[in-house]
User: Fold this.
Amino acid sequence: MSWWQDEFLNIKNNKLYLEEKSAEEIVRKYGTPVYIYSRKKILNNLQNIQEAFSSASPELEVRIAYAMKANPHPAILKTLLKKGCWIDAVSPAEVKTALKAGFPEYKIMFTGTSISLKDFERVLKHPEVTINLDAYEQIEILAEARKKMRRKKPVRVSVRWNPGLGRGFSSKTVTAGERSSDGTPIKFGVEEASVIEAFKKLKKLGFEPVGLHQHLGSGWTEEDFPVAIKAVDRMIKKARELKKAGFNLEFLDFGGGFGPKYRAEQRLFPLAEYAAYILDKVESSKLDLKAITVEPGKYLVANAGVLLMKVEYVKKSYRNLFACVNAGTYNTVPRPAIYEEAYHEIVNASCVNGRQKTKITVAGHLCETGDVFGVERLMPMPRRGHIMAVLMAGAYCHSMASNFNLRPIPKEIIL
Ligand code: LLP
Assistant:
């Protein structure tokens, strides 16, 4: 049994099956390359999160706000809406897309960085959307936008603070702390020393500060647990200080970050323990919160999607063997080309297992050396016409794909 087999992906007669259909059958209908998503898998992922937080006291609402940047497909949004999810949106266009999918305004929080006056104006059109400020310097711009819009209704705001600690699978996805692991200064959030001042200013300007938010980074595994819980402690401490200063918050938002399993040897982030830790700390804090929020993106959708592509030919050059496929990383699954640490399992869907395995590099059709889905992967020798599946393609793949080389972004099919 392969580590990735589950209710979505299976092997029958040495062929890859996606729920009830073989990958080969699916591409006969839809062509290649194509993204295939499983609603069933998304729902099961959601259920895992709900179960992790199920011991919350009835007075504390647990909001699961889908970080739609991971995959804003309307059918995915609708599926999550039906199950009670909220939305983490990071651009006015995401807010609009969430509204179009049917989310009520009050279930949307807008968290933007480098936000323009125009962006704020667009979001302020929706009176019940909560605006989560990423910078002290945004407050005046928001006030200006409110004035320009002649907005009468109160504006619900929260503050994204930077608790001084961050974790992510790549230096590019660490979103808190002073600098990332490669030295890049971190642009997100209000620094610790300015948080209370930000709340005071918001109040003075007539805004309605309702929450405190943090997001440490993306792609946590087991080893990120100690930092994740340390950041929970910092958040509670900061909320206590705010309470002392007269700010009784409605919610604390702990952000997203908990990763699904991308490779066999990866040890999963202990979600249940994390949830229990948050609940325990929140409930013993006497903060009288109405709600807590988590903002999962990749946990909900990454393992619910695959990219299917076709092998055009197998090429030998020097001692290298390539499966040349009819897709490009940047147009489909850009993560391995962008992040050194990103890994996507690749399965030969037409011949999953075999006694004889070959080391083969799966190369895309773009004019860049980095356009490889996987380097020297061990698998049964592919042939022309074989179908290859890139796993974990449900999150940050279609949403980050480009038209580089004027290649189209493939269509998405939901099972
Ligand atoms: N909340 C906020 C404010 C965020 O910025 C993000 C992700 C999330 C929640 C969801 O994080 P998740 O649960 O998906 O880890 N392109 C990268 C991921 C960047 C995530 C940025 N922010 C990747 O492909 O791995």
